[in-house]
Amino acid sequence: MRASLIQLAVSDSEPPAERRSRAAALVRAQEGADLVVLPELWALGGFAYEAWATGAEPLDGPTAEAMSAAARATRVWLHAGSIVERDPDGPIYNTSLLFAPDGTLTHTYRKIHRFGFDSGEAVAMGAGQEIVTAATDLGRLGLATCYDLRFPELFRALLDDSAELLVVPAAWPERRREHWTLLARARAVEEQAFVLACNTAGTHGGVPQAGHSLVVDPWGRVLGEAGPDEEVLTVEFDPAEVGKARADFPVHRDRLLGIPAPVQR
């Protein structure tokens, strides 16, 4: 299997429509890939809070239209990163889009864990409520987004729904880059799954981005890692390694659920 992670540079100076066209062209350039992944909120910027309300779009909006056409033209599974989704009956959401090789939007995932504490995403966006995995001919994909990496219980839930490839688009800042790579490797080791973590480059909302997208195997080995600037990271691997790792080192069978509270002495 060949996966291409498009570590797109996002800046406040590039209009979203131009970046949308540029991203579509980059997807079309990945001929021969099986899976292509884009970062989180790349059209508007993950820290460009002031742009979200006016730039939000529906699931059949211009970003989805462009990404559907790019997936169909290239005949790839396309995780198009996430958009600011405008729900006519509710708040805006940070919503990931997965397209099949025929351009069909097959799955969406609304980010559950919102970053910002008392500001930004945490107050501007609604929280997703559903665990999402996607059965594909490449294996079962588990969907998560950026800040979700810090919450291992979500990834246990994806594991319990048979996820084998964990796809994590992000807009992770440079000042916490070591956390980004550490947590991506930790989730791979914990779930004995491949992690495909695609970050943004550039600076948006005044926040420099970490880049360093990476692909990690079920043993925690980094198969490929990008640098800090815009680039396409392409890695080939065998998804069957997930089953082999889980059989060779069957740690999950020793999970203890409902462990009793410690006895007070």
Q: What is the CA–CA distance across the termini?
A: 55 Å
Q: What is the CATH superfamily?
A: Carbon-nitrogen hydrolase
Q: What is the mean predicted local confidence, pLDDT?
A: 96
> Could you spell the SSE succession in H and E letters?
EEHEHHEEEHEEHEHEEEEEEH
Q: Provide the low-confidence segments as ranges.
A: none
| DSSP helical segment count | 7
CATH topology: Nitrilase/N-carbamoyl-D-aminoacid amidohydrolase
Overall number of structural domains: 1
Structural class: alpha/beta
Shape: globular
Radius of gyration: 18 Å
Residue share in helix: 25-40%
Q: In CATH's first tier, which class applies?
A: Alpha Beta
The strand count comes to 15
Family: Belongs to the carbon-nitrogen hydrolase superfamily. NIT1/NIT2 family.
InterPro entries: C-N_Hydrolase (IPR003010), C-N_Hydrolase_sf (IPR036526)
Pfam families: CN_hydrolase
GO molecular function, one term: hydrolase activity
Secondary-structure blueprint of this entry?
Elements: E1 2-7, E2 9-11, H1 16-28, E3 35-37, H2 49-55, H3 62-74, E4 77-86, E5 92-99, E6 105-110, H4 121-124, E7 133-136, E8 139-143, H5 152-160, E9 165-169, H6 177-191, E10 194-198, E11 201-204, E12 207-208, E13 214-216, E14 222-225, E15 231-236, H7 241-248
Parallel strand pairs: 1-3, 2-11, 3-4, 8-9, 9-10
Antiparallel strand pairs: 1-15, 4-5, 5-6, 7-8, 10-13, 11-12, 13-14
Helix pairs in contact: 1-3
Give an account of the 3D structure:
The strands form three sheets. The protein has a six-stranded mixed β-sheet with strand order 6-5-4-3-1-15. A six-stranded mixed β-sheet has the order 7-8-9-10-13-14, with helices on one face. It has a three-stranded mixed β-sheet with strand order 2-11-12, with no helix packed on it. It is built from seven helices and 15 strands. It has helices spanning 16-28, 49-55, 62-74, 121-124, 152-160, 177-191, 241-248, and strands at residues 2-7, 9-11, 35-37, 77-86, 92-99, 105-110, 133-136, 139-143, 165-169, 194-198, 201-204, 207-208, 214-216, 222-225, 231-236. Helix 6 links the parallel strand 9 and strand 10. The model has no long low-confidence stretch (mean pLDDT 96). It has a single domain, classed as Nitrilase/N-carbamoyl-D-aminoacid amidohydrolase, CATH 3.60.110.10. The chain has 265 residues and is of the alpha/beta class.
